[in-house]
């Protein structure tokens, strides 16, 4: 009887915590709406885009970057190697949009074991304006991209970010990627912000350049293997907050394989484990696996129906997730619940992997992440 009560209580606490995180995230998130450009004088913005390789949506993401509805902005594309196939596409896009100030910078500044950060250094130092956005090349920028970032800036803000929202999945494994990105990772990040625990996300980062330069500039982000972890700690150290945009930006996915999902999730888990171990430790409790196991133990001890217990727990977890996705206009399909189940089967394995050392892949780079440091060994890009 004691075992039954403890298992039932713990399962209930985890289910309620899951529901509370969805409610908190929903309170911070807004459905997509268009924000008009400023009518008066606007702040000019530099957008630094580190690029590597050609992806299925590269043509579209480039077009979007040149089509922003902001009065004054410049684009700075950064590529580490001149023979990268994306160089040709970037040069063609610059030629098609001569009215938008844009530059392509080539070369690599090895300031850290983080290849993306190394690629961004030259762009940051070349930026002409006081407001700088570091934007991943696979972000699908809406025309009011800058407006959303600027709208989230407050007097006590040190950084504005956006989590990636997976869209346009092609195939079941891409739906699993959506389940990871949207109603799990983005949801918990917005719930954390609602509780005053703002964490940076490297997909889109709006910086006030003089502020960061006064604290060591972009090179200060080499203090951690992940630039968003370093950014979080730097901003918090200044007594400022990391804010998230109210309507996060899309990342179109296309096709995904199980191997690609595992590679990304294992890498991210290992990075979170190294940079924020106290927050990483309870991640095993965020999926349905642990509360479901506890509920089944309690049901078996009490002689209750195991199938009904299984269905009740899964419904308590996944129906609210689907409601959140529907309310915010995120991808939702008849296969999403199955994708969420598979996600929560993968999650404990990646969590366990996060506690181990060894090499992980970072877009063609083999990276060995130790307890406090990382070593980077460049390998041929799959692109």
Give a verbal description of the structure.
It is found in: Membrane. Pathway: Lipid metabolism; sphingolipid metabolism; Sphingolipid metabolism. InterPro entries: Ceramide_glucosylTrfase, Nucleotide-diphossugar_trans. Keywords: Glycosyltransferase, Membrane, Transferase, Transmembrane, Transmembrane helix. This is Ceramide glucosyltransferase. With 383 residues, the chain is α/β, with parallel strands linked by helices. The chain folds into two domains: 2-26 and 275-374, no CATH class; 33-257, Spore Coat Polysaccharide Biosynthesis Protein SpsA, Chain A (Alpha-Beta Complex). It has helices at residues 2-28, 58-65, 86-96, 115-126, 145-151, 172-194, 209-213, 227-237, 258-275, 277-280, 289-302, 306-328, 336-354, and strands spanning 45-51, 73-79, 102-106, 131-135, 157-162, 165-170, 204-208, 241-244, 250-255, 359-362, 365-369, 374-378. The strands form three sheets. It has a seven-stranded mixed β-sheet, with helices on both faces. Strands 10-11-12 form a three-stranded antiparallel β-sheet, covered by helices on one side. It has a two-stranded parallel sheet with strand order 6-9. Strand 10 and strand 11 (365-369) form a beta hairpin. The longest helix is centred in the N-terminal third of the chain and has 27 residues, at 2-28. The N and C termini lie far apart (58 Å).
């Amino acid at each position: 009887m004691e075992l039954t009560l403890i298992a039932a209580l713990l399962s209930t606490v985890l289910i309620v915590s899951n529901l509370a995180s969805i409610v908190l995230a929903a309170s911070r998130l807004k459905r997509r709406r268009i924000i008009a450009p400023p009518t008066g004088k606007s702040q000019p913005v530099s957008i630094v885009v580190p690029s590597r390789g050609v992806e299925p949506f590269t043509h579209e993401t480039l077009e979007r970057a040149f089509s922003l509805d902001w009065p004054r902005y410049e684009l700075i594309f950064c590529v580490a190697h001149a023979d990268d196939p994306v160089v040709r596409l970037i040069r063609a896009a610059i030629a098609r949009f001569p009215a938008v100030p844009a530059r392509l910078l080539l070369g690599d500044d090895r300031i850290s074991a983080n290849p993306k950060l190394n690629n961004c250094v030259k762009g940051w130092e070349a930026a002409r304006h006081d407001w700088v956005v570091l934007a991943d090349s696979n972000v699908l920028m809406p025309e009011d991209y800058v407006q959303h970032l600027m709208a989230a800036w407050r007097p006590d803000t040190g950084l504005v970010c956006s989590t990636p929202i997976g869209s346009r999945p092609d195939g079941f494994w891409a739906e699993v990627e959506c389940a990871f990105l949207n109603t799990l990772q983005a949801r918990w990040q917005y719930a954390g912000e609602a509780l005053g625990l703002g964490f940076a996300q490297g997909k889109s980062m709006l910086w006030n350049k003089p502020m960061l330069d006064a604290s060591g500039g972009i090179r200060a982000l080499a203090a951690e293997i992940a630039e968003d972890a370093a950014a979080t700690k730097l901003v918090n150290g200044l007594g400022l907050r990391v804010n998230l945009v109210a309507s996060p930006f899309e990342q179109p996915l296309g096709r995904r394989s199980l191997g690609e999902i595992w590679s990304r999730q294992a890498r991210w888990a290992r990075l979170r484990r190294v940079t924020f171990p106290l927050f990483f430790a309870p991640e095993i409790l965020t999926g349905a696996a642990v509360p479901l196991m506890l509920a089944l133990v309690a049901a078996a001890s009490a002689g209750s129906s195991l199938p009904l217990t299984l269905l009740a727990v899964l419904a308590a977890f996944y129906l609210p997730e689907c409601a959140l996705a529907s309310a915010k206009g995120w991808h939702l399909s008849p296969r999403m619940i199955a994708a969420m189940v598979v996600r929560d089967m993968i999650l404990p394995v990646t969590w366990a992997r996060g506690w181990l050392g060894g090499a992980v892949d970072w877009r063609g780079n083999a990276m060995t992440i130790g307890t406090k440091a990382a070593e980077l060994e460049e390998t041929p890009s799959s692109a």
